[in-house]
Amino acid sequence: MIMLGHIETLMISDVCAEGAYLDGKDLGEVFLPANELEEHLEAGDSVQVFIYQDSQGHPTATTKTPIAQVGEFALLRVKELSTVGAFMDIGIDKDVLAPFNEQKPKMREGYSYLVKLYLDNASKRICASSNLNKFVNKTEPSYEKFQEVDLIVAAKTDIGYKVIINEQHFGVVFFNTVFKRMFVGQKLKGYIKVVRDDGKIDVVLDKPGMGKVVSLGDQIIQALKENGGYLPLGDKSDPEQIKKAFSTSKANFKKAIGGLFKQGKISIEAKSISLKE
């Protein structure tokens, strides 16, 4: 089924001076302007396009790739405020509207907000909502401990970062477990630490157990090779230096270099390590 607000592959029905008409199936004809049509394309060819409604409500296509499609979360910037809401940039010529009643918090021009794109039932136009509670935590969480999940950073709070898990549930990554830069709208992998009795979910960014240490060990070896077999970091180094170099805690770093030392791969000094030949 061909849907508004999505990237689809459509067949060209007819080509004219103004552009091309594409077969949108249930949507009817979808117009692709001439400045978006490659010269070699003709009737019968297929083209990948993003479909939206123009200001007159006609199905229209663009070959430009939008920042997000309907049903997806994305960090979008407000280009202009109007009497009906905020118009946000999604990377194509047509902006999307975030109506005032879908703004939580109230939006300001030039600022960016995490929103979910949806199709308005009445107008069939693509809209944006920063009222994320409407879309998240609608089902009971059923995650396994240490399960790998997809995360989107939703907000920074007093205790950590509020994240959206698999686009379905809210969770928290606590500050004391974060050793890398995080920002609203960022997409990254994480792991379920615990699902509490009240439904709240704790998430960590690093793979629990020895898997993290092994992965960090590989990073350390690679860094040593890239720096002539020497790094000015050791058992007694400042934790902030370690965090800056490897986005990890001093405890994890010490476990990793300890494992490498036992394998006979490195030598360890108080504030340095080096590759063994």
UniProtKB/TrEMBL annotation:
<dbReference type="InterPro" id="IPR040764">
    <property type="entry name" value="CvfB_WH"/>
</dbReference>
<protein>
    <submittedName>
        <fullName>GntR family transcriptional regulator</fullName>
    </submittedName>
</protein>
<feature type="domain" description="Conserved virulence factor B-like winged helix">
    <location>
        <begin position="218"/>
        <end position="275"/>
    </location>
</feature>
<dbReference type="InterPro" id="IPR036388">
    <property type="entry name" value="WH-like_DNA-bd_sf"/>
</dbReference>
<comment type="similarity">
    <text>Belongs to the CvfB family.</text>
</comment>
<dbReference type="InterPro" id="IPR014464">
    <property type="entry name" value="CvfB_fam"/>
</dbReference>
<dbReference type="Pfam" id="PF17783">
    <property type="entry name" value="WHD_CvfB"/>
</dbReference>
<feature type="domain" description="Conserved virulence factor B first S1">
    <location>
        <begin position="4"/>
        <end position="64"/>
    </location>
</feature>
<dbReference type="Pfam" id="PF13509">
    <property type="entry name" value="S1_2"/>
</dbReference>
<dbReference type="InterPro" id="IPR039566">
    <property type="entry name" value="CvfB_S1_st"/>
</dbReference>
<dbReference type="InterPro" id="IPR012340">
    <property type="entry name" value="NA-bd_OB-fold"/>
</dbReference>
